[in-house]
User: Which sequence fits this backbone?
């Protein structure tokens, strides 16, 4: 078959909030004396002696074209960057022909790019252009024999004539181009690659393979990917405009291109469908993204206006049969299905060393080495990309290939595949994940993709731990709004699927309430947590770890709502219970100690706060490590205690260290880092470094609005601090303008970063 002509855990610990906190193969070779022995032309060896023939008496009518060069598709994109790479490779070829192998998955536009090169060669006056389908050796031999006849070196035997034609190509000074389209097995072409000893020839090959046998011997691979977003948008606009259908263009052109993965073939089918049915981009996008619409329905064969004659699904998965034939382990199909359930943008290669995935691949569990070989096999056939240099997104797949694979997963197999993938995600998830932000973000994206494709499979007698892990990760990364949305859904689904009194439901309700606090909704958080605390004590008992966790979160919420006295009473009782149940240095107890110290600080009991906070920092550094998020939080609380006690120089030094560590480990936009930067600005102001303080406050206010949202209480506070600093620093016009934007009365607020801050 030839390519369609392209266009183009076990349960994690309870939540303890902080106060700030996957052919045929023939062998062939040239025998002695010029005979071909064991060629791929048949099951049995066949010998064809090559005899030189005199050139035909009939003169050759130059230029000569052999084989039909595919017409360029409507709204064809020239892809100048790719053409420059091809031309650059040719320029480096010297006097020996350099073969460029255009390699990429189905539908990315390899054949169209080669066709454009062939058309340009004709326009530039090349003497000979040969286009040959190269799925089988016989196709190549046939075209070579025809070319031999056209250039006057044929003698009547096709295979012998093909050999004569190769000899002619090697020695002629005429300019020529040979295109070998859709190479599916490098072995069958071993003896049929053209060469040029005069430097006048050029060979292009297209293939889905990323096989080492396609390179070497003067052959260079050029990887062909999908359109760039700009090329995809231009294609859609040009295609519809060319048909007089400009009214179908709307603001969803970029969204349509993204949904189709910028795949040229898919864009061609989609725009034809839109023209035929007179659908706007928005209307087609809604149809395409509807889970009830199959890929073959959204990109039907009837939309094949360019005459390619193959449905998009067939094109995308054409290499699977060849990969399965080359797969001696039988793992390729299962591996491809697992990849298709995850994020197309990529997942960690380490996932394929996780026991859950290895157990899913084979009944007796595959080895990591076997899994890697399977991934590389799928990579060679362009079904996926497996590149360990690209961690944490080393294993990737085109979104449409993934969708085509998913639509063919047997219904009975989906739960097992989904749970294996979810178990593997939990297995490789770092704890705490703020120390590995890129990996954590990748794992969250993969959980989202898995849930989107197999959400019901992640619920049984409880929700799968990966759903909880994702929600905790969002909170740890300081992503307030996404965390709130995630836990809203979790709480609702737990209550609907597990019941209102299930332990997971109680935990989800508690975490959701804490998310409200982190979003600046303090009273809402208190109200929700009071109800959850009552339910936990009634259903679980006051000493149950979940009940203790809820009491901790409630105490934190009291503090955030300004009800510090109530927070202290609750935290003192909670600390006694945690010490009795867990010990003084257990992480849960450390959390309560940290929160109680912060409450003492906020009520002006600075000596008690500093003494307690210093012990918490020391114990956290020893038990959790200097860079643990809880340790960073305790260090920040201690620095603030020093500020309020007047030890500004010591506080400045500690905050500078803390910000460097927090920026490196959590990121400069994390709420904890923003808070530390704000406290450092306060120290600068108290030390008389007013200009430094203002510059820092300007950066913090801008980052707060951008990252937290203008209505978030912390963002409003950072803006208020800046307005007051402007006023006290003599920049009255800027202060008045900013205060009006924020609704702040400068005459009724304290000086910048006073103890009432």
Assistant:
């Amino acid at each position: 078959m030839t390519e369609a002509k392209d266009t183009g855990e076990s349960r994690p610990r309870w939540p303890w909030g902080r106060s700030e906190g996957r052919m045929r193969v023939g062998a062939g070779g040239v025998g002695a004396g010029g005979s071909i022995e064991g060629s791929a032309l048949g099951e049995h060896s066949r010998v064809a002696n090559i005899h030189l023939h005199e050139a035909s008496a009939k003169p050759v009518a130059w230029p000569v074209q052999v084989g039909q060069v595919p017409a360029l598709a409507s709204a064809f994109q020239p892809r100048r960057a790719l053409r420059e790479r091809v031309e650059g490779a040719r320029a480096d070829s010297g006097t020996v022909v350099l073969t460029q192998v255009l390699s990429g998955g189905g539908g990315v536009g390899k054949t169209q790019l080669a066709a454009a090169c062939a058309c340009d060669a004709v326009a530039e006056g090349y003497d000979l252009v040969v286009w040959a389908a190269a799925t089988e050796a016989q196709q190549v031999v046939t075209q070579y024999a025809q070319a031999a006849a056209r250039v006057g070196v044929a003698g009547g035997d096709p295979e012998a004539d093909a050999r004569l034609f190769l000899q002619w190509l090697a020695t002629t000074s005429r300019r020529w181009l040979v295109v070998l389209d859709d190479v599916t097995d490098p072995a069958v072409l071993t003896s049929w690659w053209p060469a040029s000893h005069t430097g006048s020839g050029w060979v292009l090959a297209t293939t889905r393979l990323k096989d080492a046998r396609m390179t070497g011997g003067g052959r260079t691979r050029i990887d062909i990917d999908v359109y760039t977003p700009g090329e995809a948008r231009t294609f859609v606009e040009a295609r519809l405009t060319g048909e007089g259908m400009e009214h179908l263009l709307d603001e969803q052109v970029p969204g349509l291109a993204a949904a189709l993965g910028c795949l040229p073939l898919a864009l061609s089918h989609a725009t034809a469908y839109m023209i035929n049915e007179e659908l706007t981009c928005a209307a087609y996008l809604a149809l395409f993204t509807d889970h009830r619409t199959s890929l073959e329905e959204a990109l039907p064969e009837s939309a094949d206006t360019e005459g390619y004659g193959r449905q998009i699904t067939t094109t995308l998965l054409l290499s699977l049969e060849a990969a399965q034939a080359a797969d001696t382990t039988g793992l390729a199909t299962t591996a491809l299905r697992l990849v298709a359930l995850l994020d197309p943008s990529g997942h960690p290669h380490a996932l394929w060393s996780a026991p859950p995935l290895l157990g899913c691949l084979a009944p007796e569990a595959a080895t990591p080495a076997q899994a890697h070989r399977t991934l590389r096999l799928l990579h060679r056939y362009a079904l996926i990309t497996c590149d360990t240099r690209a961690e944490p997104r080393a294993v990737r797949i085109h979104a449409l290939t993934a969708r085509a694979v998913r639509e063919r997963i047997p219904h009975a197999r989906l739960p097992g595949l989904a749970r294996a993938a979810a178990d593997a995600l939990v297995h490789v998830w770092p704890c705490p994940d703020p120390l590995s932000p890129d990996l954590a973000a990748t794992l969250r994206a993969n959980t989202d993709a898995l849930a989107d494709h197999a959400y019901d499979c992640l619920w049984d007698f409880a929700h799968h731990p990966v759903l909880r892990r994702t929600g905790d990760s969002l909170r740890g990364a300081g992503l307030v709004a996404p965390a709130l949305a995630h836990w809203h859904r979790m709480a609702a689904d737990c209550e609907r699927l597990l019941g209102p009194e299930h332990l997971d439901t109680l935990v989800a309700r508690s975490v959701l309430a804490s998310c409200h606090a982190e979003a600046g909704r303090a009273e809402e958080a208190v109200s929700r947590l009071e109800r959850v605390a009552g339910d936990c004590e009634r259903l679980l008992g006051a000493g149950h770890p979940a009940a203790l966790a809820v009491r901790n979160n409630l105490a934190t919420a009291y503090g955030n709502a300004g009800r510090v006295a109530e927070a202290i009473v609750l935290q003192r009782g909670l600390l006694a219970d945690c010490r009795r149940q867990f010990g003084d240095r257990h992480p849960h107890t450390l959390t309560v100690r940290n929160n109680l110290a912060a409450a003492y600080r906020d009520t002006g009991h600075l000596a008690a706060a500093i003494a307690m906070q210093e012990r918490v920092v020391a114990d956290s550094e020893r038990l959790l490590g200097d860079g643990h998020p809880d340790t960073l939080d305790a260090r920040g609380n201690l620095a603030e205690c020093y500020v309020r006690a007047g030890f500004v120089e010591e506080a400045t030094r500690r905050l500078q260290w803390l910000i460097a560590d927090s920026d490196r480990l959590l990121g400069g936009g994390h709420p904890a880092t923003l808070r530390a930067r704000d406290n450092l600005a306060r120290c600068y102001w108290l030390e008389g470094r007013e200009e430094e303080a203002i510059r820092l406050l300007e950066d913090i206010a801008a980052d707060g609005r951008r990252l937290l949202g203008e209505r978030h209480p912390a963002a409003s506070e950072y803006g208020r601090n800046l307005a007051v600093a402007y006023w006290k620093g003599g920049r009255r016009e800027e202060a008045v303008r900013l205060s009006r934007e924020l609704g702040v009365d400068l005459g009724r607020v304290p000086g910048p970063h006073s103890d009432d801050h």
